[in-house]
């Protein structure tokens, strides 16, 4: 049965980035201690960028066993890696280029491939990776997600076709801002994760955060993220959580 989500509210976006780094470092240490390897899947968008840059800075950078870490993506826009909309391209500038991670431990989604083909390529890449760690089930150690003002998460939009609800691992979709073809992990694979953490910042997200927590009938994509056996954390700043009941403590 799904565990109750943990809600952490920080005073601002800078505290949010620091708390996110702590969650990342702890998940990395726990996973490496448990089974010698750490797999994390990153989202795009602006919210995680501060945290991502911090991962490349001390004291955090040297506290992470990058040689035992594998980085994947939750979603990607089907554009060239040099396009400012490329999630991998942005991550490369923000932190990947500055951390001592082996090249073959970075697994970008093939955003330059024909979308349907790209989904198959990434499915096979995930299959090979999870099989290589002793035939394990495709459970990421940590997945970092964001939400949009329409309740989307990853590239799973309210109007995303039902393929995203199937047992496929990766699907090609179109939509969002920018409105382009995209590759995204499905709910099926997201919900196998050991830890999922939503990062949400800013006042413009407050109405959708309220809908997610208080309108269970809304059937928003973010509400379909319910890890089967893993932990779910909502890390928000005060602005994003401002329409939730005041009982939530601020970190
Ligand atoms: C992407 C995403 C998407 C993102 C949200 C929040 O578009 O690549 O993965 O789901 O996380 O749209 O984006 P912001 O952090 O920019 O608000």
Which structural category do the helix and sheet elements fall into?
Answer: alpha/beta
Per DSSP, the total helix count is 6
Distance between the termini: 28 Å
Strand order of the largest sheet: 1-10-9-6-2-3-5
Specify the helix fraction band.
25-40%
Helix and strand string, N-terminal first? EHEHEEHEHEEEHEHE
Q: What do the pLDDT scores average to?
A: 94
What gyration radius follows from the Cα positions, in whole Å? Answer: 17 Å
Low-confidence stretches: none
Give a quick account of the main beta sheet: strands, pairing sense, barrel closure. 7 strands, parallel
Blueprint (SSEs and pairs):
Layout (H helix, E strand, L loop, with lengths): L5 E5 L2 H23 L2 E5 L6 H7 L13 E5 L1 E3 L9 H8 L11 E2 L7 H18 L9 E4 L24 E6 L4 E6 L1 H4 L4 E6 L5 H9 L16 E7 L14
Helix pairs in contact: 1-2
The structure holds 6-phosphogluconic acid.
The site of 6-phosphogluconic acid has 15 residues, from loops.
